[in-house]
Amino acid sequence: MSSFLSASLGRKVFMSVTGLFLILFLSLHLTLNLFLIFDDSGNLFNQAAHFMATNPMIKIMEPILALGFIIHIIWAAMLTWANMKARPQKYASGDQLLSWWAPSKNMFILGSMILAFLVLHIFNFWVKIKLTGDPLLNHPAGTNIDMENTYNLVSNLFINYPVYDLIYVIAGLLVGLHISHGFWSAFQTIGLNNINWMKRLKCLANIIGILFAIGFAAIPIYFLLKF
Ligand code: HEM
């Protein structure tokens, strides 16, 4: 029993640390992506994408990031599985059905949906930029630096495929919801569970979650409405 608890606690701490690390990545990712809507020439976003693709520090960070995602996901699956085995089987009651939207009880479901989005997302952009190439990337990027036109690839998806706008808006909301619970929960797991601090952290988590949801959703909505 105690080994189960300590193993489970160890996994939770690991999930919290990787989760906080992923929030840092997403903050940077969102900030750079917002360049998409602040300069319709695409120059600002292309410069930022070029910097990210060529900077040696970022190149070192990329596999660490991938590892962070993988550990976070595998640990989540293991923890959920251990919890399911440890708890007696419950029958669906009205309460359980009504609580489907409560993020605290559904971090795993939310995380799985985000993972499904992530697979699609990696095929939309990363695979084309890093592996296969795409004619859209070869359009002149509007600067004298020789770089790929990432803006053209991203804007083309959001302007011409409304179904992807919908998917990306939903993904933004899911990420916001996931973080609005995950952020304070991570600190609680690490040991910061003083009542006053918890109140502040929960408030901050809601603000961060809302900012992520609005920020990510704003990008496809902008392209859909403007072009
Ligand atoms: C409007 C929303 C988004 C846009 C426009 C966007 C854009 C992009 C682009 C262009 C890339 C390729 C970067 C490169 O390799 O040069 C990328 C990669 C990536 N995105 Fe997003 N993204 C969005 C939302 C998200 C969300 C919500 C997540 C997380 C759930 C996410 C996670 C990632 C990851 C893990 C990568 C691969 C690592 C990297 O290349 O930085 N993205 N995204």
Would you tell me the overall average pLDDT?
A: 87
Strand residue content: under 5%
N- to C-terminal separation? 59 Å
Report the strand count: 0
Poorly predicted regions are 97-101
The residue fraction in helices comes out at over 70%
Describe the global form.
elongated
Name the CATH class: Mainly Alpha
Can you tell me the CATH architecture?
Up-down Bundle
**CATH fold assignment:** 3 helical TM bundles of succinate and fumarate reductases
Which cofactor or ligand species appear? protoporphyrin IX containing FE
- Radius of gyration equals 20 Å
Give the H and E element order. HHHHHHHH
Structural class: mainly alpha
Number of helices: 8
Description:
The chain is an all-alpha fold and 227 residues long. The protein has one domain: 3 helical TM bundles of succinate and fumarate reductases (Up-down Bundle), CATH 1.20.1300. Helices cover 81% and strands 0% of the residues. It has eight helices and no strands. The radius of gyration is 20 Å and the shape is elongated. The termini are far apart. Protoporphyrin IX containing FE (HEM) is lined by residues 26, 29, 33, 49, 52-53, 114, 118, 121, 125-126, 129-130, 150, 154, 168, 171, 175, 216, 219-220.
